[in-house]
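Reviewer 2 asked us to include a model.

Predict the structure of this chain.
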Amino acid sequence: MSVSARIGSGFGWKFGAILSLWLLSFAGYSQADTGASQSAHDVVRAATEQVMVVVKEAHGYADEDPERYYQAVDEILGPVIDYRGFARSVMGPYASGDRYRSLDEAGRNQLRDQLQRFTAIMRTGLVATYSKGLLAFSGSRIEVVDPAPQESENTRVSVRQLIYSEESQPYVLMYQMGLNKEKQWKLRNIIIESVNLGEIYRNQFQAAARKYDGDLDLVIENWSAAEADS
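Predicted model (structure tokens):
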């Protein structure tokens, strides 16, 4: 079965559900006490074990009080997802170091403000759009594939996760993780069934930049994470 057939036409509800599982698989997990010995695979595996508790609790109130659900999700994702790095990657050459260095002080201040605003918009949009899809995977069996021996010394690794549902084959997710200066693993990007989420958003951003003749303020003002579903 093709990727588009399994995920759905475009990026439909099932993509949202898988992305929700990605977002919330890190919910409630803190690396504060784990130390440098904790691997990226350990982080994903431990967080995944906790996510099903979140799913079970959400069933009791998400329909009646979705804002409470979204707020709870937003509060627990910040420490484990590198939203700023993800947003900067989506902006691509418009937020590159070369472009930043080419600007005068006023231009640099503007770019910093644009990146800050875009980061906040992406964060809000992702959480609000996809959190509700998580409930679709209640009761699913989830496995994290063990790492290769040579990955233990890397500061950037990809963690492979399998999600079993009603389909004959599991969904395959690749978490792209990076070790920050505090020796904590941060989620930088995800690939769902060979679909690179970062590339999808980056292409969307560049298309919007062309539409608005390079006016990043207009791109950001008109941005919606929900456009990735179209």
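The domain at 11-223 is CATH 3.10.450.710 (Nuclear Transport Factor 2; Chain: A,). The two ends are 21 Å apart (CA to CA). We have added this to the supplementary material.
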